[in-house]
Amino acid sequence: MKRVLVAGSDIILREMIFSLVADLPIEVQVADNVVLFERECRAGYFDLVIMTNLSPFFDGTDPSSVLRRDELRRPEIFVVSWHHSEWSVMSLLESRVSQYVTLPMNVRRIRR
Questions:
Q1: What residues contact residue 65 under an 8 Å CB cut-off, 6+ apart?
Q2: pLDDT 10s digits, 87-103
Q3: Residues 5 and 29: beta-carbon distance below 8 Å
Q4: Alpha helices (H) along the chain
């Protein structure tokens, strides 16, 4: 069974993502802060991580290295955000984020 982690302090986006994938045959974990995020990542492997905050990528936390510490396992990292700035998108892609999704989002793309 695929495992998905939905992480971030933006409760609206977190709940929206959770409701989009809740009926899929996957295991979904939710982390609402960086401490829980890091604990969940240490506890197990995720196939997909959906982040709802940009700040961990810019405050020195570097979620990509936390998630991809074992080079053999490389989960996909999606960031869903309200921000549309080119600077944010370029910075996230340089941080090895797989996909950057802004609103309005393509529900089919997220569910796939």
A1: none
A2: 777 777 777 787 878 77
A3: yes
A4: 11-21, 34-43, 55-58, 63-67, 86-94, 107-111
Q: Which two tokens stand for residue 100?
A: 């950057």
Query: What confidence score (pLDDT) does residue 71 get?
Result: 58
DSSP SS3 for 44: coil
Backbone angles phi, psi at 22, to 5 degrees: -60, -30
pTM: 0.78
Residue whose entry in the numeric block shows the structure tokens 């020195």: 60
In whole angstroms, give the CA distance from residue 5 to residue 111: 14
**Assign residue 60 a region: left if phi > 0, alpha if psi is -120 to 50, beta otherwise?**
left
Q: What pLDDT digit, counting tens, does each position of 12-35 carry?
A: 888 888 888 888 898 888 888 777
Distance CA 54, CA 91 (A): 10
